[in-house]
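User: My collaborator sent over this chain with a note saying "see what the structure looks like." That's all I know about it. Can you take a look?
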Amino acid sequence: MDKVFQHQQFEAKIYEKWEKSGAFQPKIPIAQSGRRSLSKAKGLTKQPDNQTTKQPFTIIMPPPNANEDLHIGHVRFVTIEDILIRYHRMRGEPTLWLPGADHAGIETQYVFEKKLAEEGKSRFDFDRETLYQMIWDYSMEKRKNMESQLRALGASCDWTRNKFTLDPDIIKIVYRTFKKLYDDGLIYRGKSIVNYCPYCGTTFSQLEVETVERDDELYYLDYGPISIATTRPETIFADVAVAVSPKDKRYKGLVGKKAVVPLINKEVPIIADDLVDPKFGTGALKITPGHDAADFEIGQRHQLEALSVINLAGRMVNTPEKYLGMRPEAARVETVTDLKEAGKLKKTENIHHAVGTCYKHKKPIEPLLWEQWFLKVESLVKKSLDAMDKRQVKFVAKRFEKIARHWYENLRDWNISRQIVWGIRIPAWHCEDCGKWTITAGEKPQKCLECSSTKITQDTDTFDTWFSSGQWPFATLQTAEKGDFEYFYPTSAMETAYDIIPFWVIRMIMLGLYETGKVPFHEVLIHGLVRDKEGHKISKSKGNVIDPLIMVERYGADALRMGVVWGAKIESDISLSEENIRGQRNFANKIWNIARFILMDRTTKKSQPNADDRLILKELEATAKKVTKSLDTYRLNEAVEELYEFVWHKLADIYLEKTKTRRAEAQETLESVLKESLKLLHPFMPFVTEAVWNELGEKESLITSPWPQAS
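Assistant: Without extra context I'll predict from the sequence alone. Here is the result:
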């Protein structure tokens, strides 16, 4: 053995050996509880019924976006999930980690459009089919790179079941779910206020709008008998009422009378509504149902007209001529100037408030009135909360359950249609003659179901990417291998980042319960962010990015893996630096050198174990017990710190030193302790442990060896 563990010489070869051996595929009984026969199933490693009665352990990998290389955040989730998968595999459980990639909708199209812009091109230069194919080719290239990076990190997922959110069989299931929801009256097409980004050219759900706090001007305007306060004077041309609180005694005598919109001298009714906050501004609100969600709600209650003065291009329309074609920001400046000249601007003051912005362009979202496809969520939310109440699905960290409940309790009907090319096109067909829609499970109808006309065209919109990925757990298992869904669903755990609890986790529970009648996973394990050594969020703009591929090349995958689980609970943010990773490389070398010392002379001499031998065996057993308990309760940081203490200090610093004068007598104990230590370390540091295991001359790979039994 070399003096130093040369990870570059081992990692790729070891991974290839694992993958070719079928070690990543679940060992499933030929028949499990009489439910099915797997004798003809593809991709399953079969074993006799009597070899296991253990429940399967399953994780569906959160599919990385097929549009970029893996970043350090991906490393954390991959490491956490791989540790759990390797541990349960060694426990003898039928273990499945199903990998995949996400087409990622607007995320990918946005990245691709930036690439086009660098080439002096735009999405508008291409027809729909050409643009789609270009993005497809780009995504397939990025997906291939991403999967190579997963392998470099040691991800022991079952590549024979690899899925993509745009696989035809996945799309078929998404269509089936959409049709069922429609038939059950849960899908409707209607006009409502939607969150629209004029720069992206598409709508977003309420969850995708990034709320930022900023300082703006609050304008107090003269509306005749009443004054109002607003941050958006440019939309006064779409006002249809002024609303006050019914409890506000100041305005009791004005309800039912008329206010006058300045600059256009339009009379609008003064109404009372409980949604008005009497403490905001003057306590009177201009009601603009076409450009504000709360105003739209008030307008619906009072049967008010909804007018629009901003179009899909983000330009002013239906206004006096001087404002036509302006951006809203420019129109605001011009409107305020005109209000001053007309004597209708009473005062201004600063306001610190929350503003919805596009999470890609960071520009303000325009609330617009537009006809879209919506999913009614009330009944789905009720079933999801009921499942959580009954503990059918549990959040390992309670604080994240509170976050999920908060989102459920505030969820409105979900706008699931997007105005982009990249994604799953909605299977809705519009009739030119009667204007009605025909919904299918993907196939084109021969004629309109309403009037029998053959003049029908498919909707150009695509599904919100979270609508399709919300079906990921059952869609993957229903399409991967025959019998997978019946055996592995519901899955054991969903491990993901806390920032997508509202985007993805709650949607998976909703759609999983609706489509299958069961929760998609029993436990939700949320991990925190990876931050730099100062605790700052890692980002390109801060210049503190840690490139995982460079770290693997320099220090090895084992060192990087240890770095992202060391020192903090899974659910907590973790600080990481190159120094941390280098320190874990030193630990990998320590393991290698311990083995090198033990294996340099394998001469044995029969003798009774002495006190030192008995002590190290006792401490090994205690360590195995603690590590097992920590892994069972997802306390990975405690497990690695326990192992580090045992291997570096108790084994290397103390016991090895004491055996130097009695090597032959201690050799059997040394090798036994080394083997059991390698097993305990393997889920965390798979490459160096497998490399040492091979040096021991063991016939079976370490990856499939049994976990140490702690009494």
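A starting point for your reply to your collaborator: The first strand starts at residue 27 and ends at 29.
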